[in-house]
Design a protein that fits this description.
Layout lengths: L2 H8 L3 E6 L15 H4 L3 H9 L1 E5 L10 H8 L4 H4 L3 H8 L8 E13 L4 E3 L8 H14 L6 E8 L3 E8 L15 E4 L2 E4 L17 H22 L2 H8 L7 E8 L8 H5 L3 E5 L2 H10 L2 E4 L8 H14 L4 E6 L3 H5 L3 H22 L5 E5 L16 E6 L13 H4 L9 H8 L9
Parallel strand pairs: 1-12, 1-13, 10-11, 10-12
Antiparallel strand pairs: 2-14, 3-4, 3-6, 3-9, 5-6, 7-8, 13-14
């Protein structure tokens, strides 16, 4: 271990716990409370009483974060300055990015489209079995060709999600193309969710008259059409129709990008080593860019969230890194699905089975931060740019007057960070902190 690393080890480690989509707005079903406020969270509330809180703006008041841009911000890299789109991070995280030549990558949804009724289910009701999704990917890869020097790579994960990359040694490719997913519009490099999206898939088009963007859009449209034909005749969808389920017969693409972010190494910036635990390929891509160790960490098929927390905690505590970042997905999907009671239960599971045991295991010199990468309000069903609560506890953090963990309570905190990208420098700016 370097002298700098030994110094940081002697002054304790920093744990950053990210509750995916945990922040919310008041929900009528919860009596006008947010899920954080309605949940029984004695361990998070105890942290609030011991430490200092803040309400963090993750990116900007009009830009809803996603998990990758939220993680980037919480690790001290301002997405307004550095972000180049979700697609490139996803592509890099899946090893789909071509280090030489040309690449453009996209986030993908496995969707269901009925042109007769003009019904579009952008997420295939979240009931696409992982094995069936794998079969569809294999069929597309085996039967679709874009011809010439342009190749594609495709993967699926998380039931309805996927990643697509187009690569070429000689043909230039552009990320300046529109989404076919009507649920998102592009605002610079950021994909912004639409509150009431169109029920019709979009056609990919160039943003301007650039011939490279026009060629890329034409390739995307060809791929979408060809892959739809493969999925339409797949035995997977024959079985789904027989069971009364909607077929997964269309890929929606969004968040194109052709350039990776230029980011300084985490250790170079802070003098600390970093280990990241998450389940989003874009987080692996981010980890590669900043020199962090990445561990894919999520519940196994059929494993309960509490059992997963009990399994992963010893691994986090034994990790040799000075800074440990962990992304817990639990609260996000209930927010997307408009299920506030399930979101409350997800938060209570984290409080009881993760935050409590982690807090008890920390040493006196360690610092713990609990926050969110973005808000997913139940009554919206999409990400929002709302501020997210954060609490920090450690030897260099002075207690403030906040006594509970939640959106409103955090507004009265005095942690000193207004934006998520400021958080790390605030935590490491004490007399024994890092050089960030």
């Amino acid at each position: 271990m370097s002298a700098s690393g030994a110094e940081h080890r002697s002054t304790g480690r920093l744990f950053i716990v990210v509750l995916c989509g945990g922040a919310d707005r008041p929900v009528a079903e919860l009596g006008g409370l947010t899920p954080f406020e309605a949940a029984a969270t004695p361990r998070l509330d105890a942290l609030a009483r011991r430490g200092s809180s803040a309400a963090l703006e993750v990116i900007a008041p009009d830009v809803p974060p996603e998990s990758d841009s939220g993680a980037m911000a919480l690790l001290g890299y301002d997405p307004v300055t550095h972000y180049t789109g979700r697609g490139p991070l996803e592509g890099l995280g899946m090893d789909f990015w071509r280090p030489e030549g040309h690449s453009v990558a996209f986030r993908v949804n496995f969707a269901s489209w009925d042109p007769g009724t003009r019904r579009l289910d952008r997420r295939t009701s979240r009931d696409l079995d992982e094995d069936d999704q794998t079969t569809l990917v294999e069929e597309i890869v085996g039967q679709v060709s874009l011809g010439g020097d342009v190749a594609f790579r495709l993967t699926g994960f998380g039931r309805h999600r996927g990643i697509l990359a187009l690569t070429s040694e000689t043909v230039p490719l552009s990320g300046k193309v529109t989404n076919t997913d009507p649920g998102f519009v592009s605002r610079g490099p950021f994909g912004v969710p639409v509150n009431a999206p169109s029920a019709t898939p979009e056609t990919c088009a160039p943003f301007d008259d650039d011939p490279v963007a026009a060629r890329t859009a034409e390739l995307v449209n060809r791929f979408v059409a060809a892959s739809a034909e493969v999925m339409q005749r797949s035995e997977v969808n024959a079985r789904r129709r027989a069971l009364g389920r909607r077929p997964a017969n269309l890929l929606l693409v969004r968040d194109a990008g052709d350039t990776l972010p230029n980011l300084a190494g985490f250790t170079e910036r802070t003098g600390r080593s970093l280990s990241m635990y998450g389940q989003v390929p874009a987080e692996r891509g981010l980890a590669r860019l900043i020199g962090a160790r990445f561990t894919r960490s999520s519940p196994a098929r059929g494993q309960s969230e509490p059992d997963y927390y009990r399994e992963v905690l010893p691994e986090l505590l034994a990790d040799p890194a000075d800074t440990v970042f962990v992304h817990l997905k639990g609260p996000d999907e209930p927010g997307h699905d408009g299920r506030p009671l399930e979101k409350v239960r997800a938060i209570e599971d984290i409080d009881a089975h993760f935050v409590g045991p982690l807090t008890e295991a920390l040493g006196e010199a360690d610092t713990l931060v609990v926050t969110c990468d973005h808000a997913t309000p139940c009554e919206l069903g999409i990400h929002s740019p709302d501020r997210v609560p954060a609490v920090a506890v450690g030897p260099r953090v002075a207690a403030d007057a906040v006594s509970e963990f939640g959106e409103k309570a955090a507004l009265g905190g005095s942690l000193g960070a207004r934006r998520a990208s400021d958080l790390l420098s605030v935590l490491l700016s004490g007399p024994d902190g890092g050089r960030g």
